[in-house]
Structures are given as C-alpha cells and as structure tokens.
Amino acid sequence: MKMHKEMNKFCPRCNAYTIHTVSLYKKGKDNPMRQGARRYTRKKKGYGSQPKPIQKKFSKNTKKIVPRIKCKQCSYMRHMPSKRLKKIEII
Hints:
By secondary structure, this protein is mainly beta. It contains one helix and eight strands. It is elongated.
C-alpha cells in the first residue's frame, strides 16, 4: 500500500483540518530493568528453566502496520486506524 508523506487530517487539539506528516510506529527497545522483565528472568533461572511455551507456528503472515501522524502546527501525535498489510510505502 502506498501512503503520502503529508496529508490533510483533522487535529483534535487545533480543532481544524491541518497538514500532518506520516511516519510508521515502531516498538521501542525493551528495558531489562522493568518489573515484568525482572520477574521473567527470575522465573527462568535455575532448574526447570523456560516457564512459558515458545511459539513456533504462526497462523498469520501479516502484521498490523500502524501509521503515526503528527500535526505540523501543534506537533500533536496520534495513531491512525491500522490494517493488515505485508508492505507499506510512504511516498
């Protein structure tokens, strides 16, 4: 799917239609010091090791790609409704 770099969208903060820049949302780097990660490493330690099954079979071959739009006037950022796509191209 091809998507424009800039598009005219409604900004809830400006309360008007303004030009928005489009980029793709990407997951940030995992922090090993978060509570869940600390708990998981403690659970994996010692005899018995892996507490949860590791997924090997995947039923879906696409991911939901989330476009992130940013208002050029007030720089308010939000996510657009996403679809299942194999590839997205920002032109």
